[in-house]
Each structure stands twice: as structure tokens, then as C-alpha cells.
Specification:
- The complex is a heterodimer of chains A (168) and B (510).
- Chain A has 168 residues and is of the alpha+beta class.
- Chain A has five helices and eight strands.
- Chain A has an eight-stranded mixed sheet with strand order 1-8-7-4-5-6-2-3.
- In chain A, α2 crosses α5.
- The longest helix of chain A is centred in the middle third of the chain and has 18 residues.
- Chain B is an alpha/beta fold and 510 residues long.
- Chain B has a seven-stranded mixed sheet with strand order 16-15-17-18-19-23-24, sandwiched between helices. A six-stranded parallel sheet of chain B has the order 9-8-10-12-14-22, sandwiched between helices.
- In chain B, α6 packs across α15, α6 runs parallel beside α16 and α7 runs parallel beside α8.
- The longest helix of chain B has 21 residues.
- The two termini of chain B are 46 Å apart.
- The chains are: A alpha+beta (168), B alpha/beta (510).
- At the A-B interface, α2, α3 and α5 of A face β2 and β3 of B.
Chain lengths: 168, 510
């Protein structure tokens, strides 16, 4: 089920750390001026997160194979206390993450702000909605898909947020 | 022990299916693959093991808004309407179930939910899974070592050679613990039976002894096996065989990243202890010596990896490491080391090595009238720290992972072991803790027990008192139950070791 956002979310520009220990500003470094696909995970999840991460891996391969314009993939941990860069690196390696796919963690209150801003918070880890957000910061088009998707569905979402005249 | 060996209630084909369901690979370790909906890519089936989503009894799970249906016989062989996809399907048959597993389509050919991977199994493999699914969740669906009245566990211990005392202590402690448990009725009607294999005092025999426990002994789990410094082969075997190892007796756990999911260590290793020592050093130097940036000498053997996670850039920033000297193990030259330490002013020496060489450094510092702080792990240098000349000894700081035992601790252990003086109280307490962990986790699981549940149950330990001087907390990625240490002073008279800090964890693990 894909739902277009009525307005672009305001993403808190928190400090995040990627799987290689690189420090970024979530909005200004990783989203501003870009097309992104964003999802949440926690590394101890056994069901929906591996499926979602596997999906992102397949999406990344597809995007690379078709050399479309770059899309950043962001997998943000909702369990930042457990998921430090080392844990995220393990997952990234298992799923063959290439350049442009960031597994992100940060300070707990900061991550909570992002979850709230994207309406993705849940009372417990295992309750978080399985969700993909796709956005184009240039056009301001954002859309989200609840539940797991297939690779073509995610590619369609990426197409759908590209504005007129997008260079693809 | 062969007379009691476990008889597999599943057929060979069903057992293969169970291995694939639980492990995402075959018994010979053959790599299997999956692809995800709409993707022609290929990922290891070990990332998408059936058991992760459908559960150990095939009961289904719910996580992240994803409701995964059961795969029990009663569920699959009846028509069903899915709440997740809104689709209805007829009962599965032996003909249509393989298509669901490999092709991702239901009875009528409609695609399954995109969370269900397409498993690239050959015909024999998919037939094995289908055969296993007829037994899933039944009494026969068990791991090795579990019968109606017994759970057999194993320990690989040094029972001969110079380390035999440690192995004998551990054996008698664990046997005593399980005997007492069994006398109280065992665990949900089952007796715990411990079998022990001698690994000599030789690291090269550890893997073979462990393999005998798994293959011949058919143990359900390993408990309190002794771990040598070099344990990679044994740990790989345990991971391949997917047999939990509860509480290995390890002076310093072989921490890997990611951790081996089957091995639950108890106490902090040297890496953690040295991280804590250095975290303590800076504020301690400030408060006792009014030194903002201590000047530090690091003395270590060549090729040691202990400091890899200790001397991080952020720790180096807090101090001036003015000497980094590596000696050759076995030919420690106290004069050369003494010269290193005399070259420039030093506030602290961080030492890695054994008790004799630690003592030599202490004597050399004394001879040269130097008295920097002298930091080491108590587990490395042992009681030799007490022999350091008094002036230097007053500056010795030792990291300790396990509170020194009281007379009462000693008496209790000896009673449990039914034995006179124990050879090594530290390892004896680890063995006591290991036996406790296994028994406690089995108690929490209940009558229906398997290895996956054992691992999940130990992962749920939060500040559980082992009764052996340490508390244990594990988690999905957490495999050292008590990753803490505290720092002790050494005194000439009993009790010899006096704590000067509370329990600490390394700053970079907070």
C-alpha cells in the first residue's frame, strides 16, 4: 500500500553515525538535494528487518545495473543503544551493501525525534511499522509504502517522486 | 556412554529438512540461496532461515507489522484466508507445498506475501523440508541429546597434563551441581547428564574432544568447556554444528565481531580489563598526582592483539604514550625494559605479560628508584603482584574481572565438588556459573526444549545472579555476560587485594 505524503516531512538534522563510523547530519548531508529511500531496522529483528534489508540490497543492485540517477538508501536503526556501527557493519556486509547505502545510528533521543517526525514510532521495537519512505528533496515529493514491497514496487516509488524533467 | 546415546526419532530425510529449516543450509554445510520477490539476486539462505519467521514449532510470528503464518501440519492442510494479504487458499498438498517454498506461490498459483523468499532448493532438499513440516512441533521434533527422561550435555576439559587440576575441579563442580538439581527432580521430569571428554592440556586436542561430544556423545549443549587462548578451530566447529556452548572456562574470551552466536561467555577478557584500566588511569592520575595527561609506557609482547581495541584514537588523545615497547615472549630482558622506562619521565606503566615478567619490571623499577603506577590484569600476573618490592607495590593497580572469593565461597565450592582443596578457584567458580546458567535457562524454557530456545532463553538473562560471584546479562548481540572489571590495590597482608573502584565497564561500550 503506497501513500503519497501530503507534504514533505521535516526531517530533524540530527547527527548520525554510519556503519563505517562516519559522522553525518541526517538531513543536510544525506537527504538534502537527493532522492532517498529510507527504512528502519534493528539488528536483532529476525523477520521483517532482514526481509526489508534484503529488499534494499536487491533495489541497490537493480539501480546500479540500470545506472539510474543516484538514490541514497538509508537504513536507520530504531534500537540505537544496541546497534552501534559494528553491529550495523555486520548487517551491511551480510547484505552486500555498496556505496550510497547508509546504515545509521545515533543518540537515542535524536533517533526518537526522527521516528516521531516520520510518524514511525511504536511502543516496542517489535511494533515498529514495516515501512519504506521514498522522497525527492528537490521536488519535495515523498511517498511511503507500508509493509514489505517487491523490487519493482520500490523502483516505481522512486520513479513516482521524480519531478518533471528529472534527469533519468 | 554409548549405551545411552541418543536415538534420532526423525528419519534421515526429516532430519535434513529440520536442518534446512533451522539453519538455512544442509548438514554438510552446503550453501543454499534465496531470492526476494521481484529480484533475480541471490542471498544466503542463512539470512532467511525458515525458523526466524515461522518459529521453532512452526507456530508463526509477528514482528514489525509482519504477521507470519504458521507452517504446522494442521495449518497447512486446511484451507485458509490470510489477514495479511487478504487472499484465500485451499489446503496445501505434497505437490503444491514445494511450489510455495521454491516458487513463492500458493495453492492456486497466486504470489505469496513478498516477505516470503523464494528458496532455491533442489528437489531432494525441498522434499526434505516438506517431510519435516509433517513433524514440526511434535515430540519427535527434537535436538540431539534430549529424550523423554534425560538431557545430555557435555564438557571438553583438560583431565590430563599440567592443566588437569582445572579440568578435574570443573568436572566435579558441574557434576555436583547437576546431581543436586537431579535429586530435586531434575528439569521438568528430565535428568541432566554430563559427559566429559579429556582434551589433555593441549589446544590442538580441544577441537577433537568437542567433536567427540557432538558426534559420538550426541550432546544437546556444551557447558563449561575449557577454552585455550587459541580456540578458533573449536569455535568454528561449534558454529558449524550449531551447538550452544554455555559458559566456557576462558581466561580471556575469544571475542569476535560479530560474536559467535552459539557461545555464551561469562567474564570480561583482557581487552575489556585493559580498556577499563586506561579509562581509570586518566582521572586517577589527575586526582592523585595532579597530572592532566599522564605519560604512559606500554610494555607488551610482540604479536599480542589485546590492545587492538584498547589503544583507540580517543583513548590515546587523553594521555601521552611516550614508550611503546614490544618484547619477545619467553625472552623478557628486564634490563632493556628498565632502560626503556628510565629514558624519560613516566607516570604509568601498562604491562601485558605474565607474573614473572611483571615481578621483574617491579624489581627493575625499584632498583632504579622509579615508582610510576604499574597497571595490569590480575588474571595475567596473578599472585606475583604481591612479591613486587613495597615501594612499587603501593603503586600497582590490577583489573579484576571476578571478585576474589571469600572463605565462605571456597567452602561452598568444595562442598559442591565433594572435594578437598580445589586447584583453581577462579575456574571452579566459572564452572559453577556455567552449570547454573544451563540449569536456569532450561528451567525457564519448560518441557519442550531445543537448542534455539536455549539460545533465546540465555539471551533473555538480565542481571541474573550466577551464584558464583558474578551476574549475567546477555542479549541478541551480547555474548559476554559480565563485561565488567574493578580495580584493586595490592597490600602486603591479607586480604592482599583491596578494591579501590566499583565495578566499571569500558567507556566505549556505554
Amino acid at each position: 500500500m503506497a501513500v503519497a505524503e501530503t507534504k514533505a516531512p521535516v526531517i530533524p538534522d540530527i547527527e548520525v553515525i554510519d556503519q563505517d563510523g562516519g559522522v553525518h547530519r541526517l538531513y543536510s548531508d544525506l537527504i538534502k538535494g537527493k532522492t532517498v529511500a529510507l527504512t528502519f531496522l534493528y539488528t536483532s529483528c529476525k523477520t521483517s528487518c532482514p526481509a526489508m534489508t534484503g529488499l534494499f540490497g536487491a533495489v541497490q543492485k537493480k539501480l546500479q545495473a540500470e545506472s539510474r540517477r543516484p538514490v541514497s538508501l538509508l537504513s536507520i536503526s530504531i534500537d540505537p543503544v544496541t546497534d552501534r556501527p559494528a553491529q550495523l557493519k555486520t548487517v551491511a556486509n551480510r547484505f552486500g551493501a555498496g556505496p550510497g547505502w547508509y546504515f545509521l545510528t545515533g543518540a537515542y533521543p535524536d533517533v526518537a525525534r526522527v521516528l516521531a517526525a516520520l510518524n514511525a514510532a511504536g511502543p516496542q521495537l517489535s511494533d515498529h511499522p514495516s515501512m519504506i519512505l521514498v522522497g525527492n528533496d528537490v521536488t519535495g515529493h515523498w511517498t511511503r509504502h507500508y509493509g514489505l514491497a517487491s523490487v519493482p514496487m520500490v523502483i516505481d516509488l522512486i520513479e513516482s517522486v521524480a519531478g518533471p524533467g528529472a534527469d533519468r | 556412554m554409548e549405551s545411552l546415546a541418543w536415538q534420532d526419532p526423525l528419519t534421515t530425510v526429516e532430519r535434513l529438512g529440520r536442518t534446512i529449516y533451522h539453519q538455512g543450509r544442509t548438514e554438510t554445510g552446503e550453501e543454499l540461496h534465496v531470492s526476494l520477490a521481484g529480484s533475480d539476486g541471490s542471498l544466503s539462505a542463512t539470512l532467511f532461515r525458515c525458523v526466524q519467521c515461522h518459529g521453532v514449532w512452526g507456530q508463526g510470528t509477528e514482528e514489525g507489522g509482519l504477521r507470519v503464518p504458521p507452517v504446522t501440519p494442521s495449518f497447512l492442510t486446511r484451507p485458509h484466508a490470510s489477514l495479511q494479504t487478504g487472499q484465500s487458499r485451499e489446503a496445501y498438498t505434497d505437490h503444491t507445498l514445494p511450489r510455495a517454498i521454491t516458487g513463492g506461490v500458493d495453492v492456486s498459483g497466486a504470489p505469496l506475501h513478498s516477505g516470503m523468499p523464494r528458496y532455491r532448493f533442489n528437489e531432494q532438499q525441498v522434499d526434505a523440508v516438506v517431510a519435516y513440516l509433517k513433524k514440526i512441533g511434535t515430540e519427535e521434533d527434537s535436538d540431539p541429546g534430549v529424550t523423554t527422561d534425560t538431557i545430555t550435555v557435555g564438557a571438553a576439559l583438560p583431565l590430563s597434563g599440567p592443566l588437569a587440576g582445572i579440568g578435574q575441579d570443573a568436572q566435579s563442580i558441574m557434576e555436583g551441581y547437576f546431581r543436586s538439581l537431579n535429586e530435586r527432580g531434575g528439569v521438568y521430569g528430565r535428568q541432566i547428564r554430563l559427559i566429559v571428554e579429556d582434551m589433555g592440556s593441549n589446544p590442538s586436542q580441544s577441537e577433537a574432544a568437542t567433536a567427540r561430544l557432538i558426534k559420538t556423545g550426541q550432546v544437546f549443549a556444551l557447558v563449561g568447556s575449557f577454552e585455550f587462548g587459541e580456540a578458533a578451530a573449536t569455535l568454528n566447529l561449534i558454529e558449524r554444528a550449531q551447538v550452544p556452548l554455555i559458559g566456557p572456562l576462558a581466561l580471556s574470551p575469544q571475542a569476535s565481531d560479530p560474536p559467535n552466536p552459539y557461545v555464551f561467555y561469562t567474564l570480561a577478557g583482557f581487552d575489556i580489563q585493559y580498556r577499563i584500566l586506561l579509562d581509570f588511569l586518566v582521572p586517577h592520575a589527575r586526582s592523585t598526582m595532579d597530572v592532566a595527561r599522564p605519560r604512559v609506557a606500554v610494555i607488551r609482547p610482540k604479536h599480542t592483539t589485546i590492545l587492538n581495541t584498547v589503544l583507540t584514537p580517543s583513548r590515546r588523545k587523553t594521555m601521552d604514550i611516550v614508550v611503546e615497547y614490544e618484547y619477545v615472549r619467553g625472552s623478557f630482558d628486564r634490563v632493556v625494559v628498565g632502560e626503556q622506562l628510565h629514558k624519560r619521565p613516566i607516570d604509568a606503566v601498562v604491562f601485558i605479560g605474565d607474573g614473572e615478567d611483571f615481578l621483574a619490571i617491579g624489581q627493575e623499577l625499584d632498583r632504579r628508584h622509579l615508582s610510576p603506577m604499574l597497571l595490569a590484569s590480575a588474571g595475567m600476573v596473578g599472585h606475583r603482584a604481591m612479591d613486587v618490592p613495597p615501594g612499587v607495590r603501593a603503586k600497582v593497580l590490577l583489573a579484576v574481572a571476578l571478585q576474589p572469593p571469600t572463605e565462605q565461597d571456597r567452602d561452598q565450592l568444595e562442598t559442591l565438588a565433594g572435594q578437598h582443596p580445589l586447584h583453581n578457584l577462579g575456574f571452579a567458580r566459572m564452572a559453577r556459573g556455567a552449570a547454573f546458567m544451563l540449569g536456569d535457562a532450561l528451567m525457564r524454557i519448560g518441557r519442550r526444549v531445543n537448542r534455539s530456545l536455549l539460545i533465546e532463553e540465555v539471551e533473555r538473562f538480565r542481571e541474573v545472579d550466577s551464584g558464583a560471584g558474578f551476574t549475567l546479562t546477555y542479549g541478541p548481540q551480547k555474548r559476554i555476560g559480565s563485561p565488567r572489571a574493578r580495580i584493586f590495590h595490592v597490600t602486603p597482608n591479607a586480604p592482599h587485594f583491596i578494591p579501590i573502584t566499583d565495578w566499571m565497564v569500558p567507556q566505549d561500550s556505554q
